[in-house]
Amino acid sequence: MFFMGAYAQTKITGEVVDETDPKIKLSNASVMLLRAQDSILIQHTRADRLGNFSVVRPDTIPYLLVITYPKYGDFYKEILPENDLSLGTIQLSSVSQLLEEVIVTGKIPVVIKGDTTEYDASSFAVEKNGKVEDLLKVLPGISVDASGKITAQGKTVEKVLVDGEEFFGNDPTLVTRNVRSDMVDKVQLYEKKSEEAERTGVDDGQRTQTINLKLKEDAKKGMFGKTEAGSGADTDRGFYTGTLAFNKFNGSQKIGVFGLTSNDGTVSLNWEDRDRYGFSDLSTDVSDDGSVSFSWRGDDMDYWNGRGRPRALSTGASFSDAWKESSHKLNASYKFGIIENEEESSRISQENLPNSVLNSNEETYSKAKNQKHRFNGRYDLKIDSLTTLTMSVGASKGDTESKRTQATSTYDGSGDQINDNNAMQEMQSNNQSVDYSAYLTRKLKREGRSLSLRINGNHNKTTGDGWLQSTANFFTLDSVSEIDQRKAMESRGDNFRTSLSYTEPLTKRLNSSLQYEFSRGVSSSVNASFNRSAASGLYDELDRAFSNDFDFNTTRHATNLSFNYRSDRFDANLTNNIRNDELYQVNNDEGMDLSRSFLTYNPALFFRYKISKANSISFRFNRNNNLPSLTQIQPLRQNTDQLNIVVGNENLRPSQSNSYAISFNTYDMLKNQYGYISLNWSQRFNNIQQNIMIENGRRTLSFANLDRVANTVSFWSSIGRDLLKKQKVRGNLFFDGTYNNYFNYINSVLSENDNIDLSLSLSFSRSVKKGLDFSIGFTPGYSMLRNSLQPDLNSNGFVYRSNANLEYFLPWKLKVYSNMDYLYQAPTSIFAEKLDRFLWQPGVSKKFLKSESLNINFFVNDVLNQNIGFTRQQRASTLVQDRYNTIARYFMLKISWDFTSMKGGNE
């Protein structure tokens, strides 16, 4: 194999003791073997309980042995080529005994400081001009997948900071894929406390796995960036991509600018906000806080879901600074993006009925253009050592244009056609929103005693105008229904929330918190449908059957009493939340109103026990009461889909859910080994579910509280460790399974649905940027979709996926690579078609210039031209298979240039 070879291994042994009292054995002393020429870490171990250690030297080149122990001076020894070496007794001197004039220098690759693991970046080999992502891949205990997701010590990293601050938003990949690795001095890994805990001094036990990049001093002033351009083609059109990212640092001041344009599926670097805009039937939803959201089916602004062929333009700028010893901090960012997409899709579905089945075919074409502006600003003010104020504001403006045509046909189980519907819908809409918040905290004289005041608000407005043309044939009734209408809509929402919290320490380890919350939501929604006038030919005749004007207001009063216990080994939290929600709805068209009030109790419990510094077990319980929305109580009447009619239920009650989670986590730094097990269970009582009545192929969907308890159980586990340490080969094993059980009524008959998904994943990887690097994964799985109405027509099937990413580094700064992905979905009793898809992207790249900053890359995407859009899923008693257009085979030539004026980047 590629990693096999002959090595002249020798062993280095010794004993570590205290210099003043050799009887004191320094167990767990850190022993590191560094390559002498560049201080790269080769081997790492710790002394046993008697102070003895043994480390293997893999070959005969010179090495440096470093031994460290807290509060003792470091030991350094050059290891020259020789046979097995016994160093005997090594005596370390206490720091208090060392002379002030003695200065010990040297690099320690990995240092553990309390709960923080710190890596010296220069001790790990990374390809020249590599990014932070390349550096993270070679750090012990950290892994990065193809999407940029970072896992550290078995936990997902949610934040990546630069010198302790967020830079250019909250997407870690913006840092890891744009900041150069040679600018980094130290990489710190720790679990960051919540903002609440840091500001009040009361630890609530909430943690976020975080990586902080400490830049070199020389890298804190200057500029760096990257520009990339690519061009290519397939058989009928051209492909292009272009990116420019520019960053300027000057101490605490950071300025970033980026621009991106492409039609190869890369749509954006990131969007701070997660507001969704899609491009099909208009739908309205009102959340518990009274806010109203409108959406059309389609792509988000911040990612591409693989459907269609998008064209994108995205730009952004970011600024951050701090002054007066960081008592003032300012962060601001602006982003703008445009996405255009054309999608063609087809769908076949089977719906199980009590004594029969209903089959349908659907063909859809959609074309959409979506653009959005977004601004975010945050100002932190440290008024004094006890008082901190944070203010933030965000504003966005978006515009959407869409056109969608759809043809649907429905058949009974014998293949006889029941109905069809041909519809065309156009829509133009715009959205404006402003968010604001203020957070004031004041620590009082007694440690752990504090006051906190929060204020949050939002104002949003959405307007839209469009047209709908639809013709539905109901063959069993021998009738035709035609619609030709103009649609106009407008919604407004104003939401306000404030809370006051007081924390009080009860003992050294136990503290309590009392909070009062008030929130108010005021929203309105107007939808108007206009028929074409026979006399004037204008769309000016109001169709009252499909027009509506609603106001929906919510008021909440809530109290929250919580207790937190913290010790070195044990953390616990008990939260008691009592909430009173008042809902007031007005139907302005009919002059009717509806007032509801709900008093609910929502407790939560969490505890975590640290078995050791590297092993912990945790348990979490939550009970939530979920209020019915305006859509569920009184859905806004629409006729955009004549085959699916929605009916509300003003007698709905809140649904309840209980969720339980238990997890175990272990990590061994010496073996670079981790393990994680998680078991989750959720119960849903009085669940608000859609019941379905089907007559002549037309569905009437109504909401109701079900008396059956729905359950979801999921299990996830993984282990990872170095398999061949000398060759840097690592292995990971994952297993996960999910069982989901839920109910609804189909034609007044109870339908029970069970979904079971099981998968096992085995992966191997090597990343040293020399010779052959690889990442290979194998993932077999099995899905079971069962429905009680037609138990003989279930859709069970085997699923298999594997992937391989290979890179081979050749002389002359040349690299060849190959990325492969294979997917197989077996045929089922419902869908006789199998899916068998092999995606292969080979390529070659070469670096130029002394700094290797210029790179030319040529590749062929999907060289076998097998990429097809394909999904299968179960929705209650309905089984669905989709096909859609996507990006397949094309070739592309890319040229990229990394530039910098920073000294740290030129080392």
Q: Overview of this structure, please?
A:
This protein is mainly β. The protein is 2% helix and 64% strand. It has 4 helices and 49 strands. The strands form 7 sheets. The chain has a 26-stranded antiparallel β-barrel. Strand 2 and strand 3 (41-46) form a beta hairpin. The chain is globular, with a radius of gyration of 31 Å. Mean pLDDT is 83; it is low at 1-7, 97-106 and 269-300. InterPro entries: Beta-barrel_TonB_sf (IPR036942), OMP_b-brl_3 (IPR041700).
Topology (SSEs and partners):
Layout: E1 10-18, E2 30-35, E3 41-46, E4 52-57, E5 63-68, E6 75-79, E7 85-92, E8 110-113, E9 116-120, H1 132-137, E10 142-144, E11 150-152, E12 155-156, E13 159-162, H2 172-176, E14 184-193, H3 195-200, E15 207-215, E16 221-233, E17 238-250, E18 253-262, E19 283-286, E20 292-295, E21 311-323, E22 328-352, E23 357-382, E24 387-412, E25 417-443, E26 450-474, E27 479-505, E28 510-532, E29 539-542, E30 548-566, E31 570-587, E32 592-612, E33 615-626, H4 630-633, E34 644-647, E35 655-668, E36 673-685, E37 688-695, E38 698-705, E39 710-724, E40 729-746, E41 749-766, E42 772-787, E43 797-810, E44 814-825, E45 835-848, E46 854-861, E47 869-875, E48 878-884, E49 890-900
Parallel strand pairs: 1-7, 13-15, 34-38
Antiparallel strand pairs: 1-4, 2-3, 2-5, 5-6, 8-9, 9-14, 10-11, 11-12, 14-15, 16-17, 16-49, 17-18, 18-21, 19-20, 21-22, 22-23, 22-48, 23-24, 24-25, 25-26, 26-27, 27-28, 28-29, 28-30, 30-31, 31-32, 32-33, 33-35, 35-36, 36-39, 37-38, 39-40, 40-41, 41-42, 42-43, 43-44, 44-45, 45-46, 46-49, 47-48
Subcellular location: Cell outer membrane
Domain Outer membrane protein beta-barrel: 442-897
Protein name: Collagen-binding protein
